[in-house]
Amino acid sequence: MKEKIERFLKKKKKEINRIAELYPEEKSLLIDYEELERYDRGLAEELIRNPDEVISVFEDVLSGMNIPTIVENPRLHVRFHNLPKEKGYSLMIREITSDYIGKLMAVEGVVNRVSDILPKVSVARFYCNKCGEAHDEPQPTRFLREPLFCRNCKRRDFRFVPDESEWTDVQRLQIQEPLELLEGGEEAHQIEIWAEDDLTGRATAGDKITETGIMRLLPPRKKGSVYYKFHEANFIEG
Questions:
Q1: Which long-range contacts (CB under 8 A, 24 or more apart) does 74-78 make?
Q2: Which residues contact 27 (CB under 8 A, 6 or more apart)?
Q3: CA atoms lying within 13 Å on the CB side of residue 209
Q4: Cβ neighbours around 154 below 10 Å, total
Q5: Which of 130, 124, 122 has the alpha carbon at shortest distance from 164?
Q6: What is the pTM for the complete model shown?
Q7: What structural domains and CATH numbers belong to the chain?
Q8: What is the pLDDT of residues 98-152, one digit of tens each?
Q9: How far apart are CA 55 and CA 158, in angstroms?
């Protein structure tokens, strides 16, 4: 997979150089899904089925291209849009069932609620309380995750140090189905979207947007078997 992605990104030199010139105002390489599909259908389909792994490889390859930005170790993203409706990759909110957990899809809706932009830890710095060893732990979810054990003394006793951690912006949006797509007396279904970094601040209440993202689950606050679903945004366009 990595070799295919490297060859694909070599064709994006112009767009990548533009990001280098404008960083940090520009942080993301936007890729048309249909262009990726024309390049390699199998890779495009794997993106839908397993977006976490595929996007991670895309971003690792992009970061490894030694882009000459004005800061060291820039935080770059690879984002996708134009998922085809005819293949079932662009859905109405009501069609998002448990079959789509962890998969990439697009949804269209009208924004009816927008939160403040809040800080979220992206890489958490922990120190072992036993030996003092430092650990940097990526935080891909909304819940703070400690290291499994200290690589030095093998203990599992840590303290989190916010001042030495890396942070990003996060914002919650709620969208509902556009009224023109509803029939008769149907009620509009809603879903919450979590946007991070350069996707925050892009939409306001009343905007009609198309969001490409991954369906995630939140466990219930009390013990139970019913989970809350939300969308982790990969791209938002209006």
A1: 74/23, 74/24, 74/27, 75/27, 75/122, 75/168, 75/197, 76/19, 76/27, 76/28, 76/29, 77/27, 77/28, 77/29, 77/197, 77/198, 78/28, 78/29, 78/31
A2: 19, 74, 75, 76, 77, 197, 198
A3: 26
A4: 11
A5: 124
A6: 0.86
A7: 2-82 (3.30.1640.10), 87-117+169-237 (2.40.50.140), 121-168 (2.20.28.10)
A8: 999 999 999 999 999 999 999 999 999 999 999 999 999 998 777 799 999 999 9
A9: 30
Token pair recorded at residue 191:
């879903």
**15, 29 in Cβ contact below 8 A?**
yes
State residue 85 phi and psi, 5-degree precision. Answer: -70, -35
Strand ranges inside the chain, DSSP E: 28-32, 77-81, 90-91, 104-114, 118-128, 134-138, 158-160, 166-176, 190-196, 208-218, 228-237
- One-letter amino acid at 200 equals T
Residue type, 214: I
Ranges of residues in the chain with a pLDDT under 50 are none
